[in-house]
Design a protein that fits this description.
By secondary structure, the chain is an alpha+beta fold. The protein has one domain (25-98): 2-Layer Sandwich (Ribosomal Protein L30, Chain: A). The chain is 45% helix and 18% strand. It has helices at residues 3-9, 40-51, 55-68, 78-89, and strands spanning 28-33, 70-76, 94-98.
């Protein structure tokens, strides 16, 4: 077989994965940033309210934020991420919702 025939038999090359990340169904993230203006305990308790986690899990997030400067504390639908961000923002925590 000639190489042009082999090329014609190959399926077309398609890009793997989505290219439009604004489509519905792609996860959103609530990102909590370090601000050095709240105690670990305050952050943990607010996370308990916002994402319904345990106090220990909230403290774990607070430690990651303190150590790295930020942490994704919730991933899900945009509306829920915005609701989580609103609860965290109630006490002045710095948050961002992004895809």
């Amino acid at each position: 077989m000639a190489s042009s025939t082999i090329e014609a038999l190959r399926p077309p090359i398609t890009q793997k994965g989505p290219t439009d990340t604004n489509r519905k169904g792609f996860p959103w993230h609530t990102i909590l940033f370090n601000c050095n203006c709240h105690t670990f305990e305050e952050v943990a308790r607010q996370l308990m309210k916002a994402i319904h986690c345990s106090y220990k899990r909230g403290m774990d997030f607070a430690e990651v934020v303190d150590r790295t400067g930020k942490a994704v504390v919730y991933t899900g639908p945009r509306e829920r991420c915005e609701a989580v961000a609103a609860v965290l923002g109630d006490i002045g925590l710095i948050v961002k919702v992004a895809q």
